[in-house]
Amino acid sequence: MRTVFRPQSLTRALSWDMPFVPAAETDLRKASESMKNWTQPWTTGIYGDCGGGSRELIGTGLLLVMNGGLFLLTARHVVEKGRQAKYVSIVCSDGLSAVMNTSHWELSTPTLDLAACCLGSVSSLTPATLGVVASSSSAVADHHLFVHGFPGARSRFTAFFGNQVVSDSVPYLTYLASAEAPTDWKEEGEFHPTKHFLIDYPAPEHLQIDQTGAPIALPNPAGMSGSAVWELAKDLTFWKVPQSRIVGIAIRWDPITQTLVVTRVEEVRTFLLEVLWRRSSYFRWLNAGRPAGTALQDWLSAKETVTQLQ
Q: What is the rounded CA–CA span in Å between residue 291 and residue 180?
């Protein structure tokens, strides 16, 4: 796994004035390597199990603990029922946590493109806590940004580990993009600056730099959907890894602007709150013996008790 970062010396020509001066390459290398190691336990490839021991990478997810439960957060289109009908299950890259039915997923609106699923109680895995989820994405324009995901181009079949597909993740340090919203989204009114932002992810023909200083081409971004986007700092000189926070979830790559579209963390937090409310409301109803006509009261009662994200 090679950490990739984007120093100013290799950034493609920009038609705007960057609001801050990118860090020195030595600081970029150090930050990229540190973030790769820090986020690795929480970043997972998501695979569709085709049956007969065959799997294929379909996206990236974040393992997150909320209210004592282990959740998998990703993009909606990665696990949406219609698209994934051919899979008998959806499995994390650790092989331990399987989601047997896509009806178990909580889905956002298609525009926000978020999905979450409870995988049960916290196991031997080391998920992220809600403390790493930022409350705002307002400072992304003048901070270094980091994304860590599983491109499909890094997947391969292996006879080891039970004849499964294994994947190499790509940790990538970049900046807010200067490009306008993808044309098709602008025409449909699906891109909202208050709900989304763009980060640079150049096509493979544009060389970047790895942690050793060697030129490297970024792989095809297919599979990066669902990757967490982290805000580091404006100045990396005295920055420490624990200061980093998630400011969004990557949901698509646009080949025209060569950017990843990111759903802002404000929308992510609202979605996660709703997921907790729904689960709490549902279990209240079950524990009460499944009474008829109590949906509104169950929802209001659950809303009063779910305060962890507020």
A: 51
Rama region for 189: left / alpha / beta (φ>0; ψ in -120 to 50; rest): left
Compute how many other C-beta atoms are within 10 angstroms of the C-beta atom of residue 296. 9
Best CATH choice for the domain 1-310 from the list 2.40.10.120, 3.40.50.20, 3.30.70.20, 1.10.260.40: 2.40.10.120
Per-residue pLDDT tens digits for 102-131? 667 888 988 899 999 888 776 666 788 888
Encode pLDDT of 270-308 as tens digits: 899 888 877 765 555 445 455 544 554 544 454 555 554
Residue of 41, 32, 59 lying closest to 147 (CA atoms): 32
Q: Is the dihedral of CA 225, 227, 232, 236 positive or negative?
A: negative
DSSP assignments along 121-168, one per residue: E--SS--EEGGGB-S--TTGGGS-EEEEE--GGGEEE-SHHHH-EEE-
